[in-house]
Design a protein that fits this description.
Length: 249
């Protein structure tokens, strides 16, 4: 595991550090990857997926101006630059963005930085939008079922999980993400990744995430990342998170 692909584990099981198929340089087939980007085309040229809610749907926690900037400009830039990279590297064609990221270490060195940064940016944001939403009368305001059991087993309680994810998100130096992932053995773990690196590269299934790039919060929260993280917990789409948890690790 090189420096760029090292992921800091915070309380994860020791098994999480085992080398994955991807790290051994073997392709992970599409059938083992969650489809994180519907309804966008599964392979390139990639397009920006629409938000599954209105830009102001997460107010007052996530403001509409930030959502426009974040989705329309930042996410779009990752999509645009990923398409440029794929056009320049025919060996990347015909792959889903999750396949590109999960198999990062098998691509030619000349393509790897673009896949890591632009592919990761597209994959991470496409995932994130689907796990956000304000609780409605017909949706879950907290995890339930198997996900609730797994959180209680791993973190003691929902508040225990929130404390650990918050601590992880606050430790991200500069730009990056904090994640709850499902490990190959089915257990949950909290991880952080720098920049746009994805847990998929280590064979870990993203279940929930918080984007702690300043572009996610600076307009409304300026330098107050802790306030942004607190607000984030008000807009977790637990139905969406449960759906991610139910998918194969
Ligand atoms: Fe972002």
């Amino acid at each position: 595991m090189n420096r760029r692909t090292a992921i800091k584990h915070l309380g994860g099981a020791a098994s999480a550090l085992l080398l994955t198929e991807a790290l051994r340089g073997q392709a992970i087939p599409a059938s083992q990857l969650a489809a994180a980007t519907p309804p966008a085309p599964p392979t390139g040229p990639f397009t920006l997926p629409s938000l599954p809610y209105a830009y102001d749907a997460l107010e007052p926690y996530f403001d509409a101006a930030t959502m426009h900037l974040h989705h329309d400009k930042h996410h779009q830039a990752y999509v645009t630059n990923l398409n440029i990279a794929v056009a320049a590297h025919p060996e990347l064609a015909g792959k889903t963005v999750d396949e590109l990221v999960a198999n990062l270490n098998i691509w030619p060195e000349s393509a790897r930085t673009a896949v890591r940064n632009q592919g990761g940016g597209h994959a991470n944001h496409s995932f994130w939008w689907t796990t956000l939403g304000k609780a409605k009368a017909d949706s879950a305001a907290a995890p339930s079922g198997e996900l609730a059991k797994a959180i209680d087993t791993r973190f003691g309680s929902l508040s225990g999980f929130q404390d650990k994810l918050t601590a992880a998100a606050l430790t991200v130096f500069g730009s990056g993400w904090a994640w709850m992932v499902k490990l190959p053995d089915g257990t949950l773990s909290i991880e952080t990744t720098p920049s746009q690196e994805s847990p998929l590269t280590l064979g870990h299934k993203p279940v929930l995430a918080v984007d702690v790039w300043e572009h996610a919060y600076y307009l409304k929260y300026q330098n107050r990342r802790a306030d942004f993280i607190k607000a984030y917990f008000q807009v977790v789409n637990w139905d969406g998170v449960s759906g991610q948890f139910a998918q194969k690790a």
